[in-house]
Amino acid sequence: MKRLTNFVILSLMIFAGSALQAQSRIAYADAQKILQSLKETQVVQQKLQGEQEKLYRHLQYLQDSLNTMQDDYVKNYKDNPLFKQNVKQSFLKGIEELSYVIQNNQQKYQDDLYKKQQELMEPILDKVRKALEKIRKADGLDFILDSASGILLSYETKYDVTQRAIDELVKMSTETDSKPKDSKTK
Questions:
Q1: pTM of the shown model
Q2: Which domain holds residue 34?
Q3: I need a labelling partner for 64 at 20 to 30 A (CA). Which of 21, 46, 124, 166 fits?
């Protein structure tokens, strides 16, 4: 989906650029290199790594508990005639519930880690955007692209054709809906 969005943005830029009478001024920057050069990014990465290790230890503890329960069931309950079926079923249900908890926690931890990354990186990304915007204006540039991904990092708003594209799509949709349907009746 991200690639499609990048492709559409790049296509719209090319389309808009060809429609312009004046030559657009474009520059590029390596956003990844810029981010890696900042001490703030390194601090954020360390915080995220610490958080990830903490979550991993918790998940590992749960997984070890599950493994112990499964081993205990196989060794002591599964084929032991002294335990009634309902006791065995109860033990199996506990194993299933712990397995479910582990799966849910894995997804929750991934989501939490992603949100934390977004939260911690947002001020840094804003700082980078502002720096690029200053450079774009100072150098009289219309666009600054990320050299690795082709994503727009800064741009002159007069080249934004988003609303025109939406209007055109609505117009095309309206024209399609208003055309009489060919009914081939004999």
A1: 0.59
A2: 7-168
A3: 46
